[in-house]
Structures are given as structure tokens and as C-alpha cells.
Amino acid sequence: MLNTLTIVYLFYMFVAIYFLLLFILTFVKNRKEIFLVPETKKNYSVSVLIPAFNEEDSIEGTVRSVLDSDYKNIKEIIIINDGSTDRTLEIARRLEKKYSKIVVLDKKNEGSKAAALNYAIKRAKGELIAVVDADSYPDSHAISTMKGFFDDKKVGAVTTRILVRNRDNFLGKMQSIEYKVIAFTRKLLDFLDAVYVTPGPMALYRKKALEKIKGFDVKNMTEDIEATWHLIHEGYKVRMSFVSKSTTVAPNTLKGWFRQRIRWNIGGFQCLSKYRKVWFRKGMLGYFIIPFFAASLVLGTFGLGIFTYRILRRIFYSYLLTNYSIAAQTSLIYLQEVNLNPSILNFLGVILFIFGMAFVFFALKFINNHIREKERFFSVVFYSLVYILLRPIVLLVSFYKFLKGGYKW
To answer: For residue 245, what are the β-bridge partners?
Structure first.
């Protein structure tokens, strides 16, 4: 009889292979449309919102990247100083005096980025709202290659490729690989009407859509995921422009990375809890997006944990057996105990790992050919073998903090 861990592991393998094959088939069918940019003659007015809390090192660079946009109908750039204690407000005021498009709002920090955004949305005048994190740098053509999607009245938001800007240490290189794979996967989800997040480094929203969902959820740690689900729940579509790009400053220390991922996971659990009644209801949100998100967040991480546990258990068992045999002066192995037939579970694990590695290499090659970059082979192997194995640790800590409550941004 199969034990519980084996059943869960087999289920994980089935789900992982199913989604992997789904992505492959989606790419094959839509590969010629990945770089498609919808043409439009409409000149939507855009308000750019930049929430900032203690961003003195990057706020000016972010603002200048928006000012360098080739889109000529940016109506205003609203910097929301969210209770900063450094020189962020001082720098923002200086920029406000220099550029007529810049408006600075100074408010008390309420403990969430969502509150800062909602504060600015009420004052924004544009038909479209661009949200840009204060440590991110949209390309000059980002807005102009995203706006065409809004000719479809059902589109409520458009996201883009988010790439890592700082890759001067090994952690940065790992995150760079991760973000590229995520960007490639997100575009495939776009073809399935299943984009589940509009990340903060660069997202474009229809203002009327944001007003309909009453802005961002101030209680959610990942307001961008929740807003995306809310828009889809209200009947809007969410698209991705693969041609557009924004770079962002990723955590450069393991402690900073860990805190960021804890926040992301807690926000994910919050979304799953808030929309628990939508599971297997309400179109793509309930039938695909939420199950896919849950599988990616929980099942995939748990599967990695089980696979690691099986390997470590086998190594530990062999170590104890070897020590016992040496101490007892008995044979380490008998010929009749040699089994050349591989375990089906191990075989499936190896097959899945090979396919997963192939998918990562292909995604990186596809994106790197477009942006003329290259990853070292060793870095990709380390990412696939070691970096992703940190996820079970993050998941367990996140789940504990989620159950405990009292978490903060």
C-alpha cells in the first residue's frame, strides 16, 4: 500500500508534468505572437504613480526613467512620499520644482503600499494609471508598447517583463535567472487568459477599473496579486506586453531576500484565503488561476521538500548502515541485495528534473536572445539544484507567520 508521502509525491509529479506540457504546447501554438504589440491611434492620458518609502538612493533615477519615456501623453508623475525618514521627500520636492509634470504628495505611513497608491489614485487625472516602484526603471518604450491593449474595453490592466537590475553578486545572478523564467512563463499564461499578478515595478491600469474595485487592498501584503484577482473577478482581462520592460533593484543580501519572499508568500496565502469561495467557480479565476497559483505556491514547494527528504533519508540510512557494518565487521553489501531496477519514484523525479532544467534553459535562451544577454551554465545549474530548494524553508516560515497573524509590510 502506498504511504501518504508517496501519494502526495505522485500527485505533485502529475501536476508538475501537466503544467510543463501545457506551457510547451502553449508556446508552440503562440510563438509567433509573443512579441505582438497591438496598434492603436488612441492617445490615452497617463498618470504615473511612484510610491516611495525611504528610497533616497533610487527615487531620482526612477523619476528620470519615466521622464525619458517616448510616450508623449504622460499627464503627471505623482510621487507619494509615504512617511520616509531619509531624504526621499527632499529629493522629490527638488524634482517637483524642476519639472512641471511632477506632483509630490506627502502622507503619513499607514503600513502598506496600497494605502499610498489609493491616496494618489483619488487625485490622478489620467485615463490610465501606471504604477512604478521607487526602485524600478521602466524602459523608454514601456508605456507606448502597453497602451494598445486597452483598446479592448475588457482589459483592466497590463503587465510587462520585470528584470533584475543589480547582478553584481551571486544572489543577484540567481534572481536574474528567476525573473527571466517568470517573465517567459507569465507571457505563456497571458495566452491562457491566466496572468495572476501585475508586479509593482511596472504595471498599467485602467483608472475606471481601479475605481470599480475601490483601489488596492490595504490589508494584503501583495496588493498587486490581490488587485489582479479582483479585476478578473469583476470581469476584466489582464494582459502582458512582452516587448515592454522594467528593471528593478532586487535584494542583495540573503536576509533581504528572505524577508521579501516571506512577504510574497504571506500575501499569497492572504489571497487564497480571501478568494476561497471562488475555487472552481467564476471562470478562469476559479477554475485555473487560483488552482495554478496554489499549486505553484504550495504543492510545488512541498513536492521539492518531499524529494529532498527522500534523497537525504536514503543518504542518512546508507551512512548508518555503513557505520554499523564496519563496527560489526560484516559485509557492507550482498550480491543478492543488489537491485539494478530503478525506483519508479526516483525515475519520475529525474525525468521531471531534466524537463524542468530544459524549460529553464529554453526560457533563458529565448529572453536572452532578445535582450542580448547570457547566463553562465554553472549559474543555471546552481539555480536549478540549490536556489529553488530554499523555497520549502520560506514556505514553512511564511505559513507559520500567516497563521500567527500580526505580520507587517
So the answer is: 161
Helices (H) and strands (E) counted in the chain, each on its own, are 14, 8
The three-state secondary structure class of 356 is helix
- Strands (E) in 249-398, as ranges, are none
CA distances (Å), origin 95, targets 60, 88, 89, 133, 135: 8, 11, 10, 17, 16
pTM over 0.85: yes
For 312, residues 6+ apart whose C-beta sits below 8 A from its C-beta are none
Contacts of 165-172 with C-beta under 8 Å, sequence gap 24+, read 165/136, 165/137, 165/247, 165/248, 165/249, 165/250, 166/249, 166/250, 166/252, 168/252, 169/252, 170/379, 171/250, 171/251, 171/252, 171/253, 171/254, 171/257, 172/250, 172/252
| Exposure letters 103-140 (e unless 16+ CB within 10 A, then b) | bbbeeebeebbbbbbbbbbeebebbbbbbbbbbbbbbe
Is residue 179 within 8 Å of 163, Cβ to Cβ?
yes
Q: Tell me phi and psi for residue 130, to 5 degrees.
A: -100, 130
Per the CB < 8 A criterion, the answer to whether 273 and 227 are in contact is no
Domains along the chain with CATH numbers: 36-291 (3.90.550.10)
Phi, psi of 236 (to 5 degrees): -85, 160
Distance between CA atoms of residues 388 and 72, nearest Å: 42
Bridge partners of residue 47, in order along the sequence: 76, 129
φ/ψ (deg, to 5) at 131: -110, 125
**Element (DSSP H or E) covering residue 97:** helix 88-98
**What nine digits make up the cell of 80?**
507619494
Give Rg (Cα) of the chain: 24
Interval 106-126: pLDDT, tens: 999 888 999 999 999 999 999
pLDDT of 163 reads 96
Cell of 61: 533615477
What residue has cell string 516602484?
133
pLDDT, tens digit, for every residue of 62-82? Answer: 999 999 999 999 999 999 999
Residue 267's nearest CA partner among 222, 322, 313, 321 is: 222
